[in-house]
Amino acid sequence: MTTTATPLDVETVRADFPILGRTVREGKRLVYLDSGATSQRPRQVLDAERAFLETANAAVHRGAHQLAEEATDAYEAARQKVADFVGVDYGEIVFTKNATEGVNLVAYAMGNAAAAGPEAERFRLGPGDEIVVTEMEHHANLVPWQQLAQRTGATLRWFGVTDEGRLDLSDVDELVNERTKVVAFTHQSNVLGTVNPVRALVDAAARVGALTVLDACQSVPHGPVDFRALGVDFAVFSGHKMLGPSGVGVLYGRRALLEALPPFLTGGSMIEMVQMASSTFAPPPQRFEAGVPMTSQAVALGAAVDYLNAVGMDRVAEHEHLLTEVALRGLAEIPGVRVVGPTEAVDRGGAVSFVVEGIHAHDVGQVLDSLGIAVRVGHHCAWPLHRRMNAAATVRASFYLYNTLDEVAALVEGVREAQRFFGVA
Amino acid sequence: MQLQQMYQEIILDHYKNPHGRGLRDPFDAESHQINPTCGDEVTLRVKLDGGTVADVSYDGQGCSISQASTSVLTDLVVGKPVDEAFRKMDAFVELMQGRGQVEPDEDVLEDGIAFAGVAKYPARVKCALLGWMAFKDAVARSEGARA
Asked: Which residue ranges does UniProt annotate as crossing the membrane (chain B) (predicted)?
């Protein structure tokens, strides 16, 4: 990992996040280790959303009054910021409700390709075609593909996961073959923390002409990501995991593909010409943004991008890498604790999931909560992965730029406290 | 400390030494219940004998709250008429959904009153009710099978 000139100043960062100053459970200082589920928002993001609503709010892409102009400009400026942030062009960014909707947009649009024109030929699926996913997917990048396979008669296949929590690519040439139409996979596992070899999968897909769909929910918020350099065809991520609001997500699609892709949701804003019997559609990205979009949320997401850029994504990644290393080392020293996922901070992000022998994850989480430490417990929307890793449920601590080494120490001490409380130490 | 309020000794005892655990024959009906937010599950069998709950047996995996609650369930309902077992279930559900505002009746709920502290944690209420939902379902299935 390259080292930035000056490391992230975590106390300065924390001062921007009002919620981090509160206490929970009878006066305990909040230790927020659940950013993998949703991140907290700095004042700059909250202020940007409020400022937009107080000065420029209007329905975008309709109306010719001044507010409509200003609202549209703010909304489209946010699109440009997001595009720059992930290394792609303005017209390749579609705002969605969330990342889940982004995956569904692609899957449903592919399902609609059967009834679309010849330009949509490459999106058509039918019996004999194959969709490839991985065993480490979040349900959001699994269930939509299961459904698409069921609707079209295509076959769903998947890469397995090794005991260490890495993708098993040993059968890549068999799995990704001339029948493969889509390869959908996560950039960074929300459970294991594993960072997948995107290039290897993109190359395999390219050899057989399959489309790639990247779940970037856990990567874009945490380090520099360039979709063009990665070479993926589609990618999704969410606003609320990167200091932005909930209610806005992002779909990236390579321009030539978005231009040929049939619509998913239809209605206002996404049309070119409407007659009583039929309609034609606007070019992308408008074709995929039916109805009045989430405007203040998109504007605030633009502010979140500004915030992250000002801190520097290299710094964010470096900071989280340190926290992850220390957490892995601390947990490894506790007898009876098993980290589910890579135990070395190599090709690995800051989601650290673990089980404590003799104590159910819910119960560990309850003890941590009583100490003011917020973690996630359960299967984290990755049930098949938990089965594969022989864990009914795990405790997940996930870090972000505002977390401190003291908080990592509190987590480790909290796990020891849980062992004492349940008498398994 | 709040933690002790929730994890009463009674609950931890039932968790460590569960009553009636293990699936047994004969049985009239079986129910499998899953908590989709955490993946906890219980399989529970009911044997009825002329309107009385003759046996409840179960297996599953889950947190201390769900396992202890199912253990308490067997104490409360086995040997009781079905309508009385259901009254106890209703009382337990009312306690769990009461956000800590319901005063439990020890004559009705016995060890079940220990779960009063759990009711203050909405995320854990489902855990406490998992086995009870399986019991309700299994009784409905066995009565349906006879009807």
From this structure: none
